[in-house]
């Protein structure tokens, strides 16, 4: 029995020393500069890598033309509409390419859906009055294939839209004229100038195109098949599922490491008799006293 007690006592001492040593190492100010440099190196390396990738893999921003070469959407309109998007504060009503408000829809996803519906509507004109299921599916399949096709002409620096896509663009312009230029509708800012709404539609069409068009040399779009849209063939790829799962795992791992370190640092100065030592927070925080610097930071 004595040997067992001795073993348990020795184990407790080792555990106690391990916790104390780890906590002392983490809270030692002499190592804080090293921790800071490690964080800076990771941040700068990550920003540099993704900046390099974004620079060489950006989608083209150029004129949209019809099969005859006539300009349908000038590149200047797309750039001008970006300013309209900001001046009208549309980031407060939705997002574009996932960037913006969380309270409204994503205009990229909305336009991609409307554009696909416009192409389906165009092709459905050639179907009989009572189309069969395989005829409807053939139209949907053709729409997916043409949306996935990257018709960017690098020689002329233009994006070629086929007849169905030109018709879909005209349909989406009417859709956004109703959404933004109708004073009777609420939920979105009213834009009286129809020319600005058309420019806005051009901007959204560009976002929808790069969301569905295949990235050169890859089986997915410029946005890695985002947003999800079955009509355009945007389905999550195995890489998206893998990295999404890994990111969640890394998040939980980071939380566990943070809680583990906090648990050690919180009782770093615990006495040997088992009484709790000084916590890492100040006595002012424990008693609810707010310091002037904290009031300044709150503003």
Radius of gyration: 29 Å
Question: Overall mean pLDDT score?
Answer: 85
The poorly predicted ranges are 4-8
How are strands sequenced across the largest beta sheet? 2-1-6-5
Distance between the termini: 62 Å
Q: What sort of overall outline do the alpha carbons produce when their principal axes are compared?
A: elongated
What CATH architecture of the largest domain do you see?
Answer: Orthogonal Bundle
CATH class type of the largest domain:
Mainly Alpha
Domain module count: 3
Number of helices: 10
Structural class: mainly alpha
SS elements, strand count: 6
Approximately how much beta-strand content do the residues carry?
5-15%
Helical fraction: 55-70%
Query: Sheet bearing the most strands, described?
Result: 4 strands, mixed
CATH-defined topology of the largest domain:
Cytochrome Bc1 Complex, Chain D, domain 2
Oligomer kind: single chain
How would the blueprint of this fold be written?
Blueprint: H1 2-27, H2 32-56, E1 63-65, E2 71-73, H3 75-87, E3 95-96, E4 99-100, H4 107-124, H5 133-148, E5 152-153, E6 158-160, H6 163-180, H7 194-212, H8 238-266, H9 283-286, H10 292-298
Parallel strand pairs: 1-6
Antiparallel strand pairs: 1-2, 3-4, 5-6
């Amino acid at each position: 029995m004595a040997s067992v007690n001795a073993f348990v006592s020795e184990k407790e001492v080792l555990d106690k020393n391990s916790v104390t040593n780890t906590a002392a190492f983490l809270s030692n100010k002499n190592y804080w500069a090293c921790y800071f440099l490690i964080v800076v190196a990771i941040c700068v390396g990550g920003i540099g890598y993704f900046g390099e990738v974004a620079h060489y893999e950006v989608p083209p921003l150029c004129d949209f033309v019809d099969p005859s070469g006539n300009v349908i959407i000038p590149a200047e309109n797309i750039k001008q509409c970006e300013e309209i998007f900001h001046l009208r504060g549309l980031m407060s009503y939705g997002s574009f390419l996932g960037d913006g408000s969380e309270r409204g829809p994503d205009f990229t996803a909305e336009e991609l859906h409307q554009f696909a519906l416009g192409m389906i509507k165009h092709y459905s004109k050639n179907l009989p009055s009572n189309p069969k299921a395989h005829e409807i599916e053939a139209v949907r399949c053709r729409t997916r294939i043409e949306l996935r096709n990257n018709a960017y002409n690098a020689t002329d620096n233009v994006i070629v839209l086929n007849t169905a896509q030109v018709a879909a663009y005209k349909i989406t312009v009417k859709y956004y004229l109703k959404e933004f230029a109708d004073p009777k509708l609420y939920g979105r800012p009213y834009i009286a100038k129809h020319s600005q709404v058309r420019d806005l539609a051009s901007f959204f069409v560009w976002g929808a195109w790069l969301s569905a068009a295949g990235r050169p040399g890859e089986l997915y779009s410029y946005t890695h098949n985002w947003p999800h849209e079955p009509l355009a063939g945007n389905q999550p790829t195995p890489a998206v599922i893998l990295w999404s799962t890994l990111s969640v795992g890394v998040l939980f791992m980071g939380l566990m490491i943070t809680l583990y370190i906090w648990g050690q640092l919180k009782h770093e100065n615990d006495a040997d008799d088992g009484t709790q030592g000084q916590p890492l927070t100040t006595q002012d925080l424990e008693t609810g006293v707010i310091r002037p610097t904290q009031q300044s930071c709150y503003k």
